[in-house]
Task: inverse folding
């Protein structure tokens, strides 16, 4: 055998198994999907939450609110964020319940000082549907000269807002008088005070309640 003869080198061909490529592709897709999912889950927005019930007309500052980290997605712009309240505060134009996320539409520019709060004593129990921020009509029945009967009732204030029921026991149908704090137009304050001073019988009726025929 002639060892001086040139050796023929054989080159091995490298074959890529399609299953290997598919496996790598699946691993990459899974890694990207997990990364996207984690980023989506962790994407929260800081928005304001009412620390207590805030009624219409109140001036709102950051001290009245707490910050919550919530996932709102595209709805985030509908709610108030920490940087949305100016240093001088804002005015609530729609009542906000305790623990409620504060909608951007619920605050606005300061209104003119055209309202005042008064406490009135109403006859009989307060309807169970009446609560803080309810809208009610205040009716007045003037006492007669003898004081033993009352004249036909008339509307004293329409669209008054309930700030609070001072005596919660009045919510029970006991027939006792109840004190209710109302927000009324400032121009109506004199009429309300006059009616109370003259011993008129006052009552509140919830607005927007349907009339049921019997």
Result:
């Amino acid at each position: 055998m002639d060892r001086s003869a040139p050796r023929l080198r054989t080159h091995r061909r490298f074959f890529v198994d399609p299953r290997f490529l598919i496996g790598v592709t699946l691993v990459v897709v899974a890694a990207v999907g997990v990364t996207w999912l984690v980023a989506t889950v962790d994407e929260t927005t800081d928005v304001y939450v009412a620390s207590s019930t805030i009624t219409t007309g109140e001036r709102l500052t950051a001290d009245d609110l707490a910050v919550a980290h919530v996932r709102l997605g595209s709805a985030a712009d509908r709610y108030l964020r920490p940087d949305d309240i100016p240093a001088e505060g804002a005015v609530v134009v729609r009542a906000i319940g305790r623990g409620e996320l504060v909608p951007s539409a619920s605050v606005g520019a300061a209104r003119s000082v055209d309202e005042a709060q008064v406490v009135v004593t109403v006859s009989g129990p307060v309807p169970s549907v009446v609560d803080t921020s309810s809208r009610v009509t205040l009716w007045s029945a003037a006492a007669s000269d003898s004081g033993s009967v009352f004249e036909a009732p008339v509307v004293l204030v329409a669209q008054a807002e309930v700030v609070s029921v001072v005596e919660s026991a009045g919510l029970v149908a006991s027939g006792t008088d109840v004190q209710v704090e109302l927000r009324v137009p400032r121009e109506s304050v004199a009429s309300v005070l006059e009616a109370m001073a003259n011993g008129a019988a006052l009552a509140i009726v919830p607005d927007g309640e349907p009339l049921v025929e019997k």
Q: What stands out?
A: The chain is about 15% helix and 30% strand. Residues 168-174, 210-214 have pLDDT under 50 and may be disordered. Strands lie at 45-50, 59-60, 65-70, 90-92, 107-108, 115-122, 135-141, 154-165, 178-185, 201-206.
